[in-house]
Design a protein that fits this description.
Elements (H helix, E strand, L loop, with lengths): L1 E3 L8 E3 L5 H14 L12 H8 L3 H14 L2 E4 L3 E4 L23 E2 L12 H14 L14 H15 L8 E4 L1 H16 L8 H4 L9 E5 L4 H9 L3 E5 L1 E2 L2 E2 L4 H4 L3 E4 L13 H14 L2 E5 L23 E6 L11 E4 L2 H14 L5 H13 L1 H27 L4 E3 L7 E4 L6 H10 L2 E2 L1 E2 L7 H6 L9 E4 L9 H14 L1
Parallel strand pairs: 5-17, 7-8, 7-11, 11-12, 12-13
Antiparallel strand pairs: 1-2, 3-4, 6-14, 9-10, 13-14, 15-16, 16-19, 18-19
Helix pairs in contact: 1-3, 2-3, 3-14, 4-12, 5-12, 6-8, 6-11, 13-16, 14-16
Bound molecules: pyridoxal-5'-phosphate.
Pyridoxal-5'-phosphate binds next to helix 6.
Keywords: Aminotransferase, DNA-binding, Pyridoxal phosphate, Transcription, Transcription regulation, Transferase
GO molecular function, one term: transaminase activity
Pfam families: Aminotran_1_2, GntR
């Protein structure tokens, strides 16, 4: 089937395969951009118009546009529609998930995991930097321990025991460039242990079967960048489905993996906490097989429903790498994260750090230690918790009023939630509608480790398509506006 879109203001001849119209439209657009028939800056027809011209569903056209925006071929801007990007992505761009090009400019960004940067306690931080500089002896300004500044490691051990129930002494703590930095070190350490002849000898301790040392389980939904870090270290990922009790850690026994990366307090991004029985099963698996649990406690401090869900680590401290970050309670700009590393893995992690460098800025560490000691860090957490609790309530209200067929989930904790879409509405269409309004936001599928698993996993009770809404992200004065754009995008889909 050949079609000419002159009617819709775009003069382009493409041949569509009648048996896979959507797929061939996508291929044809990519091809036309690649060979220059669709020049940079060219405006594409509205989804409704093109769908009518081609005789396919509007949702399908919107999905194609959203995917091509994600791949960097197209741009979508507030009130202006969809355009061919100025510098299209190279032909070999990978296309596993709809991912938005980092250079695309959006007015609002509500992706999951982003904190409210405007809440950073500037004066408390300034005072902490001043105190750190005034109190720090000169020799602390030379080369220090690659594990991090002793004062901060001691402060973190106390803070984590008090607020998260973590069992740690200062010697167990390592300070890294955010959680990402820690994960990279741990991933490379695990990979090295699985290599015969490498230090540590994990190959002999692998749970069972050949190659288990390189197989690491991840949650079926999570941060793509964290999966990339694991893969870059040479590890093979095995996705775990998620249900109403959290990740299916009960499957670990059968999966022949040497480690598992989890967000037990508040699964990212679905928001489901790991249930008590699953935690027990996880601890039993780790103890029995010698497997490691990498616990990403990225927003454990932000719980709003009065149910305190402590860290998993105390259930199996010798088998758990516990990790936290200052990116949520303070700011990602600090680039500070920490790990509590079990004795068995510590030398391997240190060896990786020695091999790859990357000790963390000591002055920032000293300032964070001073902030914790002064109670400023606790105050920041309490203030943010109050602020985010208010946002959560307001968002629930707004959805109940404006989108009665949608449902909010995963909102008992953390800084993002799931907006389960009204029946019949697809994620890609809402994401495209949001892009057209200058809002960057992701559908749940964008976080999936594997397309098929994403479709199978039952999230919450409905398993419906959902939007991941970062309620923490907008500055306070723009929160209402941001949520109104979310509602408008769903409404228009
Ligand atoms: C699931 C999850 N883990 C950890 C982090 C923190 O990462 P980092 O400390 O590298 O900023 C984030 C931040 O977005 C996150 O969403």
């Amino acid at each position: 089937m050949a079609t000419n879109w002159a009617d819709s203001g775009l003069d382009l001849h493409v041949a569509l395969d009648p048996h896979r119209k959507t797929g061939s439209l996508e291929d044809a657009l990519r091809e036309a951009i690649r060979d220059g028939r669709l020049a940079p800056g060219t405006r594409l027809p509205a989804t409704r118009t093109l769908a009518a011209d081609l005789g396919i569903a509007r949702n399908s056209v919107a999905e194609v546009y959203a995917r091509l925006v994600g791949e960097g071929w197209l741009d979508a801007r507030v009130g202006a529609g969809t355009w061919v990007r100025e510098r299209p992505a190279p032909a070999f761009a990978p296309v596993p998930q709809a991912r938005v090009d980092r250079s695309t400019r959006f007015d609002l960004d509500l992706r999951g995991g982003l904190p409210d940067a405007s809440a950073f306690p500037r004066s408390a931080w300034l005072a902490a930097v001043g105190r750190a500089l005034a109190e720090t002896p000169t020799d602390a300004l030379g080369y220090g321990s690659p594990d991090g500044v002793e004062r901060l490691r001691a402060a973190l051990a106390e803070y984590l025991a008090r607020t998260r129930g973590v069992q740690a002494s200062a010697d167990d703590v390592i300070v890294t460039h955010g959680f990402g930095g820690l994960l990279g070190l741990v991933a490379r350490a695990l990979a090295a242990r699985s290599t015969p002849g490498a230090s540590g000898g994990q190959a002999e301790r692998a749970p069972s079967g050949q190659g288990a040392g390189r197989r690491v389980a991840v949650e079926a939904y999570g941060h793509v960048s964290h999966r990339e870090v694991l893969e870059a270290a040479g590890l093979e990922l095995v996705p775990l489905p998620i249900d109403a009790d959290g990740a299916r850690v009960d499957l670990l026994e059968r999966l022949d993996v040497s480690a598992v990366l989890l967000t037990p307090a508040h699964q990212f991004p679905t928001g489901v906490p790991l249930s008590r029985s699953r935690r027990e099963a996880l601890a039993a698996w780790a103890m029995r097989t010698g497997g490691f649990v990498i616990e990403d406690d990225y927003d454990g401090e932000f719980r709003f429903d009065g149910r305190s869900i402590g860290a998993f680590q105390p259930l199996a401290p010798e088998r758990t790498v516990y990790s936290g970050t200052a990116s949520k309670a303070l700011s990602p700009a600090l680039g500070l994260g920490w790990g509590v590393v079990p004795a068995e893995l510590r030398d391997d992690v240190r060896a990786e750090r020695a091999r790859t460098g990357g000790a963390t800025d000591a002055l920032a560490q000293l300032a964070l230690a001073a902030l914790i000691a002064s109670g400023g860090y606790d105050r920041s957490v309490r203030e943010l918790r109050r602020r985010y609790r208010g946002r959560r309530e307001r968002f629930e209200e707004l959805v109940a009023e404006r989108l009665p067929d949608a449902r909010v989930g995963g909102i008992a904790a953390g800084i993002q939630c799931l907006l389960e879409l009204p029946p019949g509405v697809t994620e890609a269409v809402v994401v495209a509608e949001a892009s057209a309004r200058g809002l960057r936001i992701g559908g749940l599928a964008e976080y999936a480790a594997e397309a098929d698993l994403a479709a199978d996993a039952a999230i919450g009770s409905s398993g419906r398509p959902a939007l991941v809404v970062g309620i923490g992200a907008p500055p306070q004065h723009r929160f209402e506006q941001a949520m109104a754009v979310v509602v408008a995008a769903v409404d228009a889909a």
